[in-house]
Design a protein that fits this description.
metal-binding; EC 2.3.3.14; single chain; PYR_CT; binds 3-hydroxy-3-carboxy-adipic acid; 15 helices; Homocitrate_synth; elongated; metal ion binding; 12 strands; binds copper (II) ion
Length: 449
């Protein structure tokens, strides 16, 4: 403890010192639990399969290869590709990606039939993700098969895939609306037949975290193979469900970049990273090249012609923007809401702890924090930072005074950084050589419109 720090950790200025992350215990770290895989999970990245089912998606070969390379560089464990049975080009692209020699294992996603499996094996993939519908909806309205038939067929296809020496996963579509007893006996049989993984899919996005925990935890007690999970986001639970699945013993999570997929998609790669880094920073930082996230998201957003949503974890344009005055004692960079541009200002002389209002350090993702100071919600700490960035000197009282003027104008209309700056400059100019004597004159010089 330094000489300027009181026994309660508060320094002489009444501030809490900046925390040394290596010394602070993480209150969000996973609960110690032998079944949890929060600190040991794998990603099956499905932008090139589930993502191809997104309304706007059309990936040509070059785009697919660029995305696959970028995901590989990021460090995902598996890359899942559209079934080669889907189209002639899908098959060629699958073969081309297999030949890239990526570190990530390449999977293709096929219906659980011998015909599909045979075509898939020929592409040179490292593994097959087999899927069949088990809910009564799918059994009645899609393939029309009963559970005995599904089990026999699954075992036949699994045996074939295994005989070819590649990985095999068996998954049921719409697992959460399937009969639990049916599902567990089917999975028990495929586990016994030696699959590498079984998969649980929330195809319609109906599951809650608690339901996920219950189903995965129950399944964990029934199979000894790995458990993959796949969550659609129709009710906004896809990231939370993925986290809960890991807590319950799932080993693999399906993601896509920005979550693209059927309807409003699945667990987002970036959102999962945000969730997991809070739980186990060391694992996530050690395994994934987080600084590449924005680049990959931009690449995919451009390919499917969408914008990154403003509320996207990590990369949403305001994900690290602080606006309210009471939050804004953290700044290093300011944000101009009027022109939607960012203005780096260099390091501010603010010694507060960003953790007060941030659970994720933007720097871990190569991102920067912003303080939005040109608004009615601003506070004098944000303005003080701006004053010093403009190279001006003012006492705290003067900063508070000019802050009040900025807030008054911003109460009437939206203001830009330039507006705030001219108020600051005009006030400062009139303060002259003896600022303390000139407050009234300076105030009169402040522009009011
Ligand atoms: C779909 C299939 C799937 C498969 C998931 C999986 C789903 O409906 O498009 O194989 O685990 O959501 O059920 O994406
Ligand atoms: Cu899906």
């Amino acid at each position: 403890m330094s000489a300027t720090t009181a026994p309660n950790g508060v320094d002489v200025a009444g501030r809490h010192p900046v925390a040394d992350p290596s010394k602070v215990s993480n209150p969000y770290k996973p609960v110690g639990d032998y079944i949890s895989n929060i600190s040991n999970f794998k990603i099956i990245e499905s932008t090139l399969r589930e993502g191809e089912q997104f309304a706007n998606a059309f990936f040509d070969t070059e785009t697919k290869i660029n995305i696959a390379k970028a995901l590989d560089d990021f460090g995902v464990d598996y890359i899942e590709l559209t079934s080669p049975v889907a189209s002639e080009q899908s098959k060629k692209d699958c073969e081309a990606i297999c030949k890239l020699g990526l570190k990530a294992k390449i999977l293709t996603h096929v219906r659980c039939t011998m015909d599909d499996a045979k075509v898939a094996i020929e592409t040179g993939v490292d593994g097959l993700d087999l899927v069949i519908g088990t809910s009564h909806f799918l059994r009645e309205y899609s393939h029309g098969k009963d559970m005995a038939y599904i089990t026999r067929q699954a075992l036949e296809v699994i045996e074939f895939v295994k005989s070819k020496g590649v990985e095999v996963r068996f998954s049921s579509e719409d697992s959460f609306r399937s009969d639990l007893v049916d599902l567990l006996s089917l999975y028990k049989a495929v586990d016994k037949a030696g699959v590498n993984r079984v998969g649980i899919a929330d195809t319609v996005g109906c599951a809650t975290p608690r339901q996920v925990y219950d189903l995965v935890r129950t399944l964990r007690g029934v199979v000894s193979c790995d458990i993959e999970t796949h969550f659609h986001n129709d009710t906004g639970c896809a990231i939370a469900n993925a986290y809960c699945a890991l807590e319950a013993g799932a080993t693999h999570i399906d993601t896509s970049v920005i979550g693209i997929g059927e309807r409003n998609g699945i667990t987002t790669l970036g959102g999962l990273m945000a969730r997991m880094i809070v739980a186990d920073r060391e694992y996530v930082m050690g395994k994934y090249k987080l600084s590449k996230l924005k680049e990959i998201e931009d690449m995919v957003a451009e390919a499917v012609e969408i914008n990154i949503p403003f509320n996207n974890p990590i990369t949403g344009f305001c994900a690290f923007t602080h606006k309210a005055g009471i939050h804004a004692k953290v700044g290093i960079v300011i944000f101009d809401p009027y022109h939607f541009k960012r203005m780096p200002l260099g390091l501010a002389a603010i010694l507060q702890n960003p953790s007060t209002y941030e659970i994720i350090d933007p720097a871990d993702f190569g991102m920067t924090r912003y303080v939005h100071f040109a608004s009615r919600l601003t506070g004098w700490n944000a303005i003080k930072t701006r004053v010093s960035q403009l190279g001006l000197e003012m006492s705290d009282d003067q900063v508070k005074f000019v802050t009040a003027k900025i807030k008054a104008l911003a109460d009437v209309r939206p203001i830009a950084i330039d507006d705030a700056d001219s108020i600051i400059r005009a006030f400062h100019l009139t303060l002259g050589e003896h600022p303390e004597k000139n407050m009234d004159a300076a105030a009169a010089a402040i522009p009011t419109a």
